Amino acid sequence: MDELNLVTMPVPVNLESLPGVDGIVIKIYAANARRPRTQPIVSGVLEVLMYEGLVRGGAEETNRYRHQWTFPAEELPAFATATTIGTGYSFRLAWGKDAPRIDKITVVARYQPPQGPTVYSSPSYLAIPGPLPGGSTNQR
Predict the structure, then answer these.
(1) Quick check: 59 pLDDT over 90?
(2) Rounded to whole angstroms, how far apart are CA atoms 56 and 135?
């Protein structure tokens, strides 16, 4: 695999019965330039990283993320969906105690294969609507 495509909703969502946003809904597609359809991930680890603020491409390797979700390959079949372009993965991810403290977040998918270079998706930017989780008013 040499490319990750990350698709997000434009804003975070409410994943529980309490008022306010508390997570994100995303889809991830793993691509290989030698194959016409997206492929299942059968080894390694897929991670989703959430950063506060706007993180530009490439900076995700050095910036400290606010929250990380980790999925070893053996857990991914539970999130897999068959699509017209191949296999994709759908996630509903709650950030728990790591709610953003500012009004924008950046989300990046990262695949760490057993061997070879790490593959990153392009960053996806989301605005946090209304009052920030936890009542913070710090806006950047």
Answers:
(1) no
(2) 27
Q: Is 139 left (phi over 0), alpha (psi -120 to 50) or beta?
A: beta
Which pair of structure tokens corresponds to residue 107?
């989300």
How much of the chain is in helix, strand and coil states, percent to nearest 5?
Answer: 10, 45, 45
Kindly report the CATH class assigned to 3-132. Answer: mainly beta
**What's the residue count for the chain?**
140
Query: Would you kindly state where each structural domain of the chain is located, as residue ranges?
Result: 3-132
**Can you tell me which residue has the tokens 């017209």?**
84
pLDDT above 70: residue 136: no
Residue for token digits 């993320």? Answer: 65
How far CA 46 is from CA of 20, 32, 88, 91, 121, in Å, comes to 28, 16, 12, 12, 11
